Amino acid sequence: MARYMELSAELSKLVDKFMEQFVDDEFFDDAGVQMGHIINLAVRCNPRQPQGTVRRNIVGTAMKRFCDVHMSKEFDEKTGREYNKIHIKPKDGYSPNPLGG
After folding, report:
1. Which of 3, 29, 45, 63 could join 67 in a cystine, given CB atoms 3.0 to 4.6 angstroms apart?
2. Average per-residue pLDDT in the chain?
């Protein structure tokens, strides 16, 4: 297994612990999506940004219990370039707190 995937599996454990400890059921879905976006931005802060697939794999692995993560090719009108846009949404039909019961 690639080292970055081992690290994202460790990150997943920390995310699980954080969500269980600090997030109320009422805000569980929103907090999961926000956490996914925070992780995505943290990965993008690297001066040597990874390929889109690597970024998607990191966020997807870290948020696997709470969110569905996928990417699509989008076109930026300003720059005239295509980029990989990440989509993070709460898991469908998931209990508000899968860790707490």
Report:
1. 63
2. 89
